[in-house]
Amino acid sequence: MRKLKTLIMATAAASTFATAALAERGSDGNLNIAYWQAVSILNPYLSGGTKDIEASSLILDPLANYRPDGSMEPALATEIPTIENGGVSEDLKSITWKLRDDVVWSDGTPFTSADVVFSANYCLDPEGGCNAASNFADVESVEAVDEHTVKINFSVAKPFPYGPFVGATAPVIQEAQFKDCMGAKAPECTEANFGPIGTGPFVVDEFRANDVVTYKANENYRDPAQPAFATVVLKGGGDSAATTRSVLETGEFDYAWNVQVEPEVLDQMMAAGKGEIISAFGTSVERLMVQLTNPDPALGDKRATIEGGPHPFLSDKAVRQALSMAIDRDILVEVGYGPNGQVTCNVLPAPEIYASTANDACKTQDVEGAKALLDEAGWVPGSDGIREKDGVRLSILYQTSTNSVRQGTQALIKQMWQEIGVETELRNIDAGVFFGGDQSSPDTFQKFFADIEMYTNNFDGTDPEAYMGNWVCSEIPSPANQWIGNNMPRFCSEEYNALSAEMGKTASIEKRAELAKKMNDMLMQEYVIIPLIHRGRVSAASNTLGNVVLNPWDSELAFAEEWTRLD
């Protein structure tokens, strides 16, 4: 318990991140931000897309955010609750947050504990789908102690009770605006989902889905000197090379998110001298998600669901393992990422205490071993060299978002799989659609109507409990939960569920690390996720921007109210 207390105090300590003095609100004019993945919705509870979550973070606040150094900082709360200050109960079954009394919603109405209670009920509604459901694992109830105090009760002891309302994925939404949007009605509330009333530094001025969001400074923001910028334009679409060029070469934009540009092209852009690359390694992993259910469109509503039955060939572990063995990850890093990428064999690569070494064999490509494994499993080459068994061909539809680096990675992996007798059809989807929250689209990464899909994911903060909870059975996207969930492979294991539950009530940091590694290893050794590259988070910032530090533990825009225009 002493180690736990020390960790909580260290995590909750005030950040030493230095900020320059800000001018009066709005004095720095307009801020132009480029996201090559266009924003599709401004309600993070209804989207797993990072671009939607980050765009929302300019409007909506959680009780606390993570700073770039990984520490927690109060946002709507007055302090980080700990055992020492009485905010976390001795039995670890409750956490009590004291709320600021100087916060109002952007419409001028009071922010109270009732809004926090409502936000929890909104996400926990059994008839709805909530992208942040794993953040609320083991929450038994949320109660308003008084107008500015809220208590979260857990069904088990929670050594890390900071899942609910910490970080941009689980903010507080206004009860008055969303009260008629509970459960199955949530996706239907277009006006609220496209223009949430918030407590953050900006408010929505205009939102054009899958195109552009314009914001203006929130005149009711709690700090009268913030934000420095009067307006923000967040333009979406295009590709990463174009958005990066708009900052580093043309100077048209001030900030470009998620730089995915080949190293030699990036060097050429940097030579113009208009901006700089900012980066930090957190927990981002470019990975292949393997479809365990049948995505055949003939199945109708049962397509890519447990009810539709197992995948015709990816349900065979030997096939999944062979696909991983055939990949030369060093080449993928060299060609697509350079110093901003590292080979990884884990979906949980950091912090270091959680990083497993049990899967390191993936660092070495083994084409002959992959062939032998398929031979042994009865998958034999046909007349055209493509392996088949009982009339089923190893023919893969491999999808990802549209981006030159990702398409380059796809092409390389296709060649590698060809070597072992696997046929691959490549598909790329506009990122705004792929990572979007459109319930009617067949092309979202959560519907996953393909055999393999590739993208990067990470988690808020430094504790992986909620993140590893993404692969419990209840997180499988399906029509029943409006396709909201993070278990894209449709992996379901009672043993994994038990490990996740045990981590939720384990205090020892060493034991928590052991459990996290076991969960990681189960996913890796079942080959339901095939990790490729531990990616640094990389963005481009104009030389005219001040106070910008890349945040790998939360939304990159979580502290945009601190950004300034340099003279």
Structure write-up:
Its main location: periplasm. There is one protein chain. This protein has 15 helices and 21 strands. The chain is of the alpha+beta class. The protein has 2 domains: about 1-275 and about 545-565, D-Maltodextrin-Binding Protein, domain 2; about 280-535, Dipeptide-binding Protein, Domain 3 (Dipeptide-binding Protein, domain 3), CATH 3.10.105.10. The strands form 5 sheets. Strands 1, 7, 8, 9, 10, 11, 12, 16, 17, 18 and 19 form an 11-stranded mixed β-sheet that branches. A 3-stranded antiparallel β-sheet has the order 4-6-5, covered by helices on one side. Helix 6 (about 240-250) runs parallel beside helix 7, helix 8 packs antiparallel against helix 10 (about 365-375) and helix 14 packs antiparallel against helix 15. It starts with a helix and ends with a strand. About 55% of the residues are buried. Mean pLDDT is about 95; it is low at about 1-20.
